[in-house]
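Recall the central idea of this unit: under ordinary conditions, the amino acid sequence of a chain determines the structure it adopts. In this exercise we apply that idea directly, starting from the sequence alone.
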Amino acid sequence: MTTPNKTPPGADPKQLERTGTVREIGSQAVWSLSSCKPGFGVDQLRDDNLETYWQSDGSQPHLVNIQFRRKTTVKTLCIYADYKSDESYTPSKISVRVGNNFHNLQEIRQKKFS
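Accordingly, the structure predicted from this sequence is:
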């Protein structure tokens, strides 16, 4: 999602989209996963249903790769994780990396969860 202003933490991204504060741009990208179990892939990750999700099926690190066809500025990234519902699959750390291709990615943000 992109936004011209700073979005407050915990804000509802769907509400912000309805009011025109942000714009969802994920559909403009090509999404890929390091692995997934059948029926728990990109479609479930992006379907706006909090009852469905991505479930990896391989060794760590578990990666979500989002590639835009052209240079794109992303100002806000919204991630929904529900530790209470399934702590075993909730990440302990999320790293955001950017670059011109997969081989020159540089970490710009990291968030640890406990």
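Residues 47 and 53 are 9 Å apart (CA to CA).
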